[in-house]
From TrEMBL, chain A:
Coiled coil: none annotated. Residues 15-34, 44-73 are annotated as: Disordered. SUPFAM superfamilies: Dimeric alpha+beta barrel. Residues 7-101 form the YCII-related domain. Gene3D superfamilies: Dimeric alpha+beta barrel (3.30.70.1060). This is YCII-related domain-containing protein. InterPro entries: Dimeric_a/b-barrel (IPR011008), YCII (IPR005545). Belongs to the YciI family.
From TrEMBL, chain B:
Keywords: Sigma factor, Transcription, Transcription regulation. Gene3D superfamilies: 1.10.1740.10. GO terms for biological process: DNA-templated transcription initiation. Residues 191-289 form the DUF6596 domain. Belongs to the sigma-70 factor family. ECF subfamily. It comes from Nostocoides jenkinsii Ben 74. Residues 135-173 form the RNA polymerase sigma factor 70 region 4 type domain. SUPFAM superfamilies: Sigma2 domain of RNA polymerase sigma factors, Sigma3 and sigma4 domains of RNA polymerase sigma factors, TPR-like. This is Uncharacterized protein. One of its GO terms (molecular function) is DNA binding. InterPro entries: DUF6596, RNA_pol_sigma70_r4_t2, RNA_pol_sigma_r2, RNA_pol_sigma_r3/r4-like, TPR-like_helical_dom_sf. The keyword Lipid metabolism does not apply.
Length: 116, 417
């Protein structure tokens, strides 16, 4: 049994401006992925959208024993992690296959396996 | 909460306000303290009764909610004492409870503690073990303080039946030892989905009664919206609650236009759109662009969101003929892909008839497996539009025979002629 973290990077500024058709495509696609997970016997531990990265807080050492705390994401980039799936599975090839289909439907996905 | 003492409002109104605004908070505090849900509601009910009796002579207390809490707390302690005596046990339990009550003070708990308790209470009342109907009734009663009389009216059962149902639900909580706690991060989303399903059941109960002569009891459906708002105040941006609130607001925004002066049903195309509540529509449309709905959302959330988008298409069409039926058909396709049931298939057939004509509608209807009068009513409508008046009459008559709601039946009879 291994665990996998599927990160979903997306150009987050656009979402609210996208036409509703794109929103629906997303809804259909995520709903499909949930069903594929269940059908393939993969266990969804938790999944959630994240608040916009503008609401993130980044913390790093200041080199003198304290922390520098700044508003915003750690790295500035157009694409930020907008959500994630945390999954447990015995069947990595199966999980990869349905995740690829998920990506083909329009989702950006970073597939990460937890180090064992 | 803060009545103006110079110009006291009628006591009944003040009491109504505090029940409406603070009932769930008080129930949560008491449940947190005593862990005896079975005693909490009766104690609060007794306290409200005492307030109705005493405020007119004693004057409005400075903090009405705190007053209710104190009285209710005393009732629970009395009850616990009586139980302890009955069991001939040393009343250690009571003493312990008394100490706890003293320690926490009157309404002195910091806000977040109470909010945690409220979330616990909402989740407890909507626990899947209770069954959705029992959970819906209990949540309305305990979280929102809706009277048993009104809840009975919402679910179209007698008041004693509803009182018994609520009591059963409370007993089940105590008997099964359902926890007054917040589930782990992995279990919480499922419980919030159960809560959403509970709220939606209560909402639709107000709109789609199976019998009786009141087509909608929209004021009571509004209470279910309030339940979702309580959930959202505790878990802002929770996808399933965001999508559900949007859906409910859109459906609810049409309540004033659904019946005419005679109490007859007015169908969507004939409704006076100026009577739709624009602020609710605006709020719902904004919710649908929320980032909470962009990412991994569950099937249930997606179902609510897509239904809300269909409702939004209607809400935003300036006139009935300007409705974008092709888009609505596409949305129903998404909905059916997501696993929606046969009533969505029927609604899709109606949309197809609008987008592509009654013959296409009939073809779409052929695969609909929904029982009841509605498919027959739709078939009657399509046949009438095709000029097959004999076929239409037969379909409408079949629909009338199967319909058990007075208002809808009256509407269908008018079509037969």
């Amino acid at each position: 049994m291994s665990r996998y973290l599927l990160l979903l990077p997306a150009p987050e500024a656009e979402w609210a401006d996208l036409p509703p058709e794109e929103h629906e495509k997303g809804h259909r696609s995520h709903g499909q992925f949930h069903r594929d997970l269940a059908a393939g016997g993969h266990r969804l531990i938790v999944s959630n959208p994240l608040e916009p990265s503008a609401q993130a807080t980044s913390m790093r050492p200041d080199g003198q024993g304290n922390a520098v705390v700044t508003d915003g994401p750690f790295t500035e980039s157009a694409e930020q992690i907008a959500g994630f799936y945390f999954i447990e599975s015995d069947d990595e090839p199966g999980l990869r296959a349905i995740t690829e289909q998920f990506a083909a439907r329009g989702e950006h996905i970073e597939f990460r396996k937890l180090a064992e | 909460m803060t009545p103006d003492r110079m110009t006291p409002r009628p006591y009944a109104a003040a009491l109504q306000d505090v029940v409406r605004d603070d009932w769930g908070r008080l129930a949560a505090v008491l449940t947190g303290q005593f862990r005896r849900l079975d005693l909490v509601e009766d104690a609060l009910g007794d306290a409200a009764e005492a307030a109705a009796r005493r405020w007119p002579s004693d004057g409005l207390p400075e903090r009405p909610a705190a007053w209710l809490l104190t009285v209710a707390r005393r009732r629970i302690l009395d009850q616990l004492r009586a139980e302890a005596m009955a069991a001939r046990r040393h009343p250690l339990l009571v003493t312990d409870a008394e100490h706890r009550a003293e320690r926490s003070g009157v309404m002195a708990d910091p806000g977040d503690l109470i909010d945690d308790d409220r979330l616990r209470l909402v989740l407890l009342c909507t626990h899947p073990a209770l069954g959705t109907e029992g959970a819906a009734a209990l949540a309305l009663r305990l979280v929102l303080g809706v009277s048993t009389h009104d809840i009975a009216r919402l679910f179209l059962v007698s008041e004693p039946t509803m009182a018994a149902r609520i009591t059963r639900a409370k007993k089940k909580i105590v008997a099964c030892g359902l926890p007054f706690g917040i589930p782990s991060a992995t279990a919480l989303p499922e419980r919030l989905e159960a809560m959403a399903a509970t709220a939606y059941l209560a909402f639709t109960a107000g709109y789609a009664p199976a019998s009786g002569d009141a087509l909608l009891r929209a004021d009571l459906s509004g209470e279910a919206i309030r339940l979702v708002r309580v959930g959202l105040s505790l878990r802002p941006n929770e996808p399933v609650l965001v999508a559900l609130l949007a859906l409910m607001l859109l459906q609810h925004s049409r309540r004033d236009a659904r019946l005419d002066a005679a109490g007859d049903l007015v169908l969507l195309p004939d409704q006076d759109r100026t009577r739709w509540h624009a602020t609710e529509i605006d709020e719902a449309v904004a919710l649908l662009t929320s980032p909470a709905l962009r990412g991994p959302i569950t099937q249930q959330t997606a179902l609510y969101a897509v239904q809300a988008r269909i409702a939004a298409e209607h809400a935003l069409a300036p006139t009935s003929p300007a409705t974008r039926w092709t888009r609505i058909v596409a949305l129903y396709d998404v909905l059916l892909d997501l696993g929606a049931g046969p009533s969505a298939a029927l609604a899709r057939a109606v949309a197809v008839a609008e987008a592509a004509g009654p013959a296409a509608g009939l073809a779409a209807l052929a695969t609909v497996t929904l029982p009841g009068h509605r498919p027959h009513a739709a078939r009657g409508e399509f046949l009438a539009r095709l000029g097959d008046h004999q076929g239409a009459r037969a379909a409408y008559e079949e629909a009338v025979a199967l319909c058990d709601n007075d208002v809808e039946r009256r509407h269908l009879r008018a079509r037969v002629r």
